[in-house]
Design brief:
- The chain is α/β, with parallel strands linked by helices.
- The protein contains 22 helices and 30 strands.
- The radius of gyration is 30 Å and the shape is elongated.
- Helix 13 links the parallel strand 16 and strand 17.
- Bound molecules: pyridoxal-5'-phosphate.
- The site of pyridoxal-5'-phosphate has 12 residues, from helix 3.
- It is an enzyme of class 2 (transferase).
Length: 754
């Protein structure tokens, strides 16, 4: 059973609303503008719903229009207000909106302000740490404002605005006032006609009505300009035949709200939220809530967990069939902080790792109990994966290389399972907590913490890590990059790490070469050579004239197909080889094939690095990329449509399926069952580099199909393998979310060591 905790995004349609919509399509299907009996019946339905809505919203006066949703309501209100400002006597200077407003509001303000040629200044009203508007600021600016837009309750945090305080702050202003009331419907008594509010948009799908139906309240006397002109519907205020099935469904929801049978009261909802909050706090050590509960809707919780990204938490919840929402847009390598939480002044980590959990007033105790049980299971899965304090699961793979990425900067953990010794390469401060946690949970001892060079874009946290985790080295017995003084190599059980000096990117740049019983296994090359880029060499600590010679000495030390793990990976390529980079980078080919000497190489490289812009993470670019990045190339070439999977399995019995989800997800979810004939491997994306050499050694025609929860991570894996030369790497589009129901899959083999 799916536990849907994303009601602030949308809700399912209430059974009685579904029935009403069906009746409006099958029986009372008339056009309310027709004057025959079928039309009159439809009009009666519509009038009845409008009357009910007026009662629920406290809108005994003013206009109440049906339209497609809140976004249309916001456009209509903004167009109306701005049109009146354009023709008005007193010249307004400002358009104000709350800093935590839904995007629809500031975007509409900017759009219509430009389109109508008003040129007014659009300013955000600051909010405090509690998410509420700064009323003193508003009071000071309101007299110069033509329109003020605030919201009744925030969609991300649930913070309820102080509408009385805002109204008082507008006392000396003639500004029009728009209140986005989307999240308030059914949860707050608005008493619209009793307030100064000029415009209030609503969306039906946030309260168990279908998508495509909304309402806009317009105060008597407030300026109005129709967004759509045409057949004169809605008293010529909004043209277009009315969405009668949507209106009928909304009517059924409003009836349920008035009768109070289908919805819980505020006190019960607050008890439910407290249960969920307690389950979350027990499941996730160090969890913090991002808004004060006493100021929030009783149906919304917004939280962050130190050391756990919102992407990780979303994947975790989704694996447990719990649907929640990230408070921020994010991808595997990048976390964009939530604008709402940043506006509230929350620390960047909190704003970037927020998760929103929201339920609707139709929730019941059994649903909340099940939600709490699943949250507890998520906490257990994290503990078994050593991402939270606890005991690791016996099946958890730990040996080999695990990769962590923070804003494109790569950090590697190299573990020898036999000796339980490990080495961390290029640590970043953001990972100190989770690495400490991971190593102590596994009982690993640090043999070394190494940097490949002194970094320009971030500080090394080697010292913090050495202080936090048991290690084998005496203080002061290592050099600036963490290499043991006087040592030729570092032994890690059967593994051996040697060092190769590669001055260029910086004077002290080094590569660390990993050998096992079979010979050279892979190399950590820092920023000397990255996928699609050579490390920049225009820093004060760079050695540009030595760079060419360093590349030659790297080429002598490794083979063309040796796996190279970079210090930065801005485009999710994971690893590279000299052969791949020679083909992609003419400059590299030039120096390695003797066409460029050191000086020629340095000059060409300096030209390439001129005016290097910041990366998309707003950090210093560590190299000039010469081939297409994340958005380049034919993005869908490697995607397999879910419907094509059964035929592919039949046509290619040698197909290798690879589950790239992390162990905590694999443990939580029920994986589809498939016949034993299908070859299937479990290789978490964080440990992908261990498996790359094996896949590259497969016969060229062997198809490798990666899958994950949503198709995002599998797409990265397929593209990385293709770039390295295996042309038959595929990603299952839509992942397990769109997995064909008639195709089962056996649990995949997690055993994969370096
Ligand atoms: N305003 C708020 C506060 C919202 O939460 C939303 C939807 O998330 C909207 C406006 C836009 O609503 P719709 O997409 O239904 O038009």
């Amino acid at each position: 059973m799916e536990i849907y905790l994303d009601a602030n995004a949308t809700t399912p349609v209430l059974p009685q609303a579904r029935a009403a919509a069906l009746a409006a399509m099958a029986e009372d299907f008339g056009n309310p503008s027709s004057i025959h009996s079928t039309g009159l019946k439809a009009r009666a339905v519509m009038d009845g719903v409008r009357l009910r809505a007026r009662r629920v919203l406290g809108a005994s006066s003013g206009q109440l229009l049906f339209l497609s949703g809140a976004t249309e309501g916001i456009q209509t209100a903004v167009l109306s207000a701005l049109s009146s400002l354009r023709h008005g006597q007193a010249r307004a200077e400002l358009l104000l909106y709350g800093a935590t407003e839904h995007k629809a509001v500031p975007e509409a303000l900017k759009h219509w302000n430009a389109l109508l040629g008003l040129g007014l200044q659009v300013l955000a009203i600051p909010v405090g740490r509690d998410g509420r508007h700064d009323l003193a600021w508003l009071r000071a600016h309101a007299p110069r404002a033509g329109l003020v837009c605030t919201m009744a309750a925030n969609n991300e945090t649930g913070v309820i605005s102080d509408l009385d305080g805002i109204e008082a702050a507008l006392a000396d202003s003639r500004a029009l006032w728009l209140v986005d009331s989307v999240q308030a419907l059914g949860k707050l008594a608005l008493n619209l006609a009793g307030r100064r509010i000029d415009y209030a948009p609503f969306s039906g799908h946030k309260l168990y009505a279908p998508k495509g139906i909304g309402m806009l309240y317009v105060r008597d006397g407030a300026p109005f300009t129709p967004l759509m002109a045409g057949g004169g519907q809605e008293g010529a205020l909004r043209a277009g035949t009315e969405n009668m099935s949507g209106i009928a469904a909304l009517g059924a929801v409003l009836t349920a709200l008035e009768e109070g049978r289908s919805f819980q009261d505020k006190t019960t909802l607050a008890v439910y939220r407290a249960c969920l909050a307690a389950a979350l706090e027990r499941a996730f050590a160090g969890l913090v809530f991002n808004a004060p509960p006493e100021l929030c809707l009783p149906t919304t919780l917004n939280f962050s967990v130190p050391g756990l990204s919102s992407k990780l938490l979303l994947d975790l919840f989704d694996a447990a069939d719990v649907r929640v929402s990230g408070g921020s847009a994010c991808s595997a390598a990048q976390a964009m902080p939530s604008d709402v939480l940043m506006a509230m002044g929350l620390p960047a980590w909190q704003a970037a790792s927020a998760v929103r959990l929201s339920f609707g007033p139709a929730a019941d105790a059994a649903f909340i109990d099940e939600a709490c049980a699943r949250i507890r299971a998520c906490g257990d899965a994290l503990r078994q994966s050593c991402l939270s304090p606890g005991q690791p699961s016996p099946e958890l793979p730990a040996g080999g290389v695990t990769r962590f990425v923070v804003d494109g900067a790569c950090c590697y953990l190299l573990v020898d399972e036999g000796s339980k010794r490990c080495i961390v390469i290029d640590p970043v401060p953001e990972l100190t907590g989770s690495l400490t946690q991971l190593l102590s949970c596994h009982g690993h001892t640090l043999a070394a913490v190494l940097d490949t060079h002194s970094h320009g874009d971030h500080a090394s946290s080697a010292g913090d890590l050495r202080a936090a985790v048991p290690h084998l080295l005496e203080p002061g017995s290592v050099d600036a990059l963490g290499w043991p003084l006087g040592a030729e190599q570092i032994l890690l059980g059967a593994l051996r790490l040697s060092r190769l000096a590669l001055p260029g990117h910086t004077e002290d740049s080094s590569a660390y070469l990993l050998h096992d019983a079979q010979g050279l296994r892979l190399a950590f090359v820092g920023d000397t050579l990255m996928p699609g880029a050579l490390g920049r060499s225009d820093f004060a600590q760079s050695a540009p004239m030595s760079f060419g010679a360093s590349l030659l000495s790297l080429a002598r030390a490794i083979g063309p197909q040796t796996l190279l793990l970079p210090g930065h990976d801005y485009d999710d390529r994971f690893a590279t080889t000299l052969a791949t980079e020679i083909a992609a980078q003419p400059l590299l080919a030039g120096v390695l094939h003797g066409r460029l000497d050191s000086a020629g190489f340095a000059a060409a490289k300096a030209a390439l690095e001129q005016d290097l812009a910041l990366t998309e993470f707003q950090t210093l670019a560590c190299g000039a990329r010469v081939d297409e990045g994340r958005s380049g190339g034919n993005a869908s070439l490697h995607q397999l449509a879910p419907a094509a999977l059964p035929a592919l399995l039949r046509a290619h019995p040698d197909l290798l399926l690879v589950d790239v989800r992390e162990p905590y997800e694999q443990g939580l979810s029920q994986t589809p069952q498939l016949g034993p004939a299908v070859r299937c491997q479990a290789v978490p994306l964080s440990r992908l580099v261990n498996a790359l050499p094996g896949w590259l050694a497969l016969p060229p025609g062997t198809r490798v199909l990666f899958f994950c929860r949503s198709g995002n991570r599998s797409s990265q894996a397929a593209k990385a393998l293709r770039r390295l030369g295996h042309g038959q790497a595929w990603s299952l589009a839509g992942g397990l979310a769109l997995w064909p129901h008639d195709t089962d899959l056996a649990a995949c083999d997690p055993a994969l060591a370096i």
